[in-house]
Amino acid sequence: MEAKERLIWSIALPGFGQLLNGKYLKGIVFILLEIIINVQSNFNEVIYYSFNGEIGKSIHQANYQWLMFYPCIYFFAMWDAFKDSGGGKEPYSYLPFVFSAYFVTVGIMYSDRIKMFGILLGIVWFPMLCVIPGVGLGLLLKRILTS
Question: Exposed, middle or buried by CB within 10 Å (0-12, 13-18, 19+), for 2?
Fold first, then answer.
């Protein structure tokens, strides 16, 4: 299997990419962390309400103290699976993952007040949009540092 496939499995659930790489202890730790953070932050309920357009309920349901751990675990697990399967050999190839984790974490903090076209985006949609500038800035900085 190639690195991109491991990356995609890690997007599905942190830890799956590690299991496919044969890093069983790391994979189990990432899966357990994902489950603990998911349960403690009420993330499934947040996702449910967000997908059903009940943004106010999703914001009220979220436990921000736990939810802010999620982006770092999520993006680190993606990077780790990608790296361990042979991807990321270029210098600074971790930067898009790092900046995405940072931007999504900040996005979570501001998600209860950011509106687009007068619509409150909430705790799922706004942080997801924050991945775009995170990846973009990470790729730009990588390009600058490797030039």
Answer: exposed
Residues 87-138: pLDDT tens digits? 878 899 999 999 999 999 999 999 988 887 878 888 999 999 999 999 999 9
Contact 84, 23 (CB under 8 A): yes
Reported pTM: 0.89
d(CA 71, CA 23): 21
Residue 69: both structure tokens together? 């751990």
Give the residue carrying structure tokens 């997908």.
51
Distance between the two ends of the chain, CA-based, in angstroms? 30
CA distance 82 to 92: 13
Domain boundaries, the chain: 3-146
| Beta strand pairing call for 119-120 and 115-116 | antiparallel
